[in-house]
Design goal:
The chain is an alpha/beta fold. It contains 4 helices and 8 strands.
Amino acid sequence: MGGMLGRLPAPHRRRPTGAMVPSVRVEVTGRDAVVVHPEGEIDYSSLEPLREALLDARIAGVREIVVDLREVTFLDSQGLAVILYAHQRQRSAGGRLVLRNLNENAYRLLAVTNLTTVIDVDHGSSVAPAQSRSGLAAAPLPGQPRTRPGVARR
């Protein structure tokens, strides 16, 4: 997977127009696991680094992909579609994709589209909600109490 890291754009490299080039860092956390760390805005004009990182991980045979959204300032429906597609590909191959560290706006986008019952959300040290249809913890709506720590495991 080392080759995958070399193709990703350098963090905060400027586009000719002055806009920031989106950055994605991939952290190998085990033989079959990676954490993908996108930064900045994920929208129609900046999807490619995230799409490539997720595809490269799948091609490399990674079983668990965690997408850590801590450094993402904006996520639109096109960015969410890339994540959903990667989730579906992982699941069809017997793997798993988990979202971690969603900000309020990203979480709201998942809740409005009802994807909190489809995509696994890792609440880290916060408390996770009741089971989703998949048997894994689904994120609660903002303002709802959370009932259990961590992510439920299969």
